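Reopening: structure tokens for the threonylcarbamoyladenylate complex, inputs below.
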Amino acid sequence: MSRSPIISDIRLAAQALREGRLVAFPTETVYGLGADAINEYAVAGVFAAKERPEFDPLIVHLADTIFLKQIVTEIPPVAARLAERFWPGPLTLVLPKQEKIPDLVTAGAPTVAVRVPDHPVARELLFEAGIPVAAPSANRFGRLSPTTAAHVAEQLDGRIDWILDGGPCRVGVESTVVRPEGDTVELLRHGGVTVEALEECLGVPVRVATPVLDERTPAVSPGTLASHYAPLVPLQLLPMVARETLPTARLGWLAFRHAPEWARPGDAVEVLAPDGNLQAATAVFFAALRRLDAAGVSAIIAEPFPETGLGRALNDRLRRAAATKHA
Ligand code: TXA
Ligand code: MG
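Re-run output (same inputs, fresh job):
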């Protein structure tokens, strides 16, 4: 029997959040594991359930932009502009925090990451709960993000109170994380809002923080760590693999448009979007990686996506998965 029941009762879930319980809930990007952001005890439960190190801060979710002034001390014009344009939606803003936001939420940083999700169930839940909700992606630390309620149950059953079901996530990759910097922003994580869309809104170039793929380099945004978003099976990224050195055992292939030429009979193949639509590929990305992970293959070989639009977020996740060391 499931110890973290999958439910569709939004009021029950909202009540549970107010009582300091842990509730996984759908957003347009991925499922989040929510807790009352002001309740340190509840937030500590999120870190425990995920086995997440406490140096990695959480995103606070709001029902509406109007509540932003209740948790931050300053809204620079650039942030106001982006919020106006992209909220509700897959954009996270890093802003100076008010004192009431516990240090545990921000990993001791004077800033808090915040967003208004664009999902009817998430918004109703947040309105009904009437509190800011801290929520990382609802997976065990470092593993693949969940895009269905069943994915959440696979990793967190028995560790959390409820899983609120809202169907599969529409976007499929996490929010873009940015920090205001004068008249532009520094991009800390690629995600559902593309660099192109941000630049179009701001009218100036965005500064993309150098990705940290080496564990010895300290990260500006802790979630930009190497070895993240990883399947259990080792993942290798083309073109860094030579055909001659491919393992002889059965392989899994993650491809964008076409089945890879190198795939052999019996290999598991996931083609994400035969029509070349990056949005469609993003929506099924984590689910396809999960299927390959469960297919009994010795390694997953992934093809990079075009380095444009949402392709940047997908390539970022693949590089981190490839950087993961397997015992
Ligand atoms: O789409 C999403 O963002 C999902 C859904 C549930 O909203 N959430 C999510 O949370 O992906 P999580 O915890 O997996 O990723 C949060 C990211 C991490 O990269 C973290 O380092 C960064 O946000 N972050 C949080 N607070 C920060 C802060 N104060 N300064 C810089 N980066 C911060
Ligand atoms: Mg995550």
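The longest strand covers residues 91-96. Residues 136-137, 145 surround magnesium ion (ligand 2) (CB under 6 Å). Marking as resolved unless the reporter disagrees.
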